[in-house]
Amino acid sequence: MLAFGSAALLTLIGVLCAIVIRGLTGQLLTMVLVSLGLGGVVLLVFLEVGLSEDRELARQERQRQARAEQRRAPRRVRFRRRPD
User: Fold this and answer.
1) How many alpha carbons lie under 13 Å from residue 78 in its C-beta half-sphere?
2) pLDDT in tens, 37-57
3) pTM for this predicted structure
4) What percent of the residues of the chain are helix, what percent strand, and what percent coil, each to the nearest 5?
5) Which phi and psi angles does 12 have, rounded to 5°?
6) Predicted local distance difference test score (pLDDT) of residue 53
7) Separation of alpha carbons 24 and 81, rounded Å
8) Residue 73, class by beta-carbon neighbours within 10 Å (0-12 exposed, 13-18 middle, 19+ buried)?
9) What letter does residue 80 receive in the DSSP assignment?
10) pLDDT tens-digit profile of 4-36?
11) Exposure winner among 13, 18, 23, 27, fewest CB in 10 A?
12) What is the distance between the alpha carbons of residues 21 and 33, in angstroms, rounded to a whole number?
């Protein structure tokens, strides 16, 4: 949340620079800050997607290992009752 908030804050500051600072300086600051803010948001979204895929793969691997351990565990032998 902190990273997304920082990126949004950069974008907001860029928009405020467009309103407050006139001339070429204001335009440059606006372009740079808005670009950094929006670019940061895009990068953070891609990071979050990649991390969620990694978590899903790790979860699947844990499930696969648990199933393999269950198959290797010795099974209890059940004896059938003889008819009387």
Assistant:
1) 2
2) 999 999 999 999 999 999 999
3) 0.67
4) 80, 0, 20
5) -65, -40
6) 96
7) 94
8) exposed
9) P
10) 999 999 999 999 999 999 999 999 999 999 999
11) 23
12) 13
> E strands within 1-84?
none
Q: Which of 64, 31, 5 lies closest to 14 in space, CA to CA?
A: 31
User: Do residues 15 and 34 touch, judged by C-beta distance below 8 A?
Assistant: yes
| CA gap 5, 63 in Å, rounded | 35
Residue 36: closest CA among 16, 12, 15, 7: 7
Residue 14: which residues within 8 A CB-CB, separation 6 or more?
Answer: 29, 30, 31, 32, 33, 34, 35, 36, 37
pLDDT the model gives residue 1? 85
Residue-range domain boundaries for the chain:
2-67
Q: In whole angstroms, what separates CA 20 from the centre of its chain? A: 35
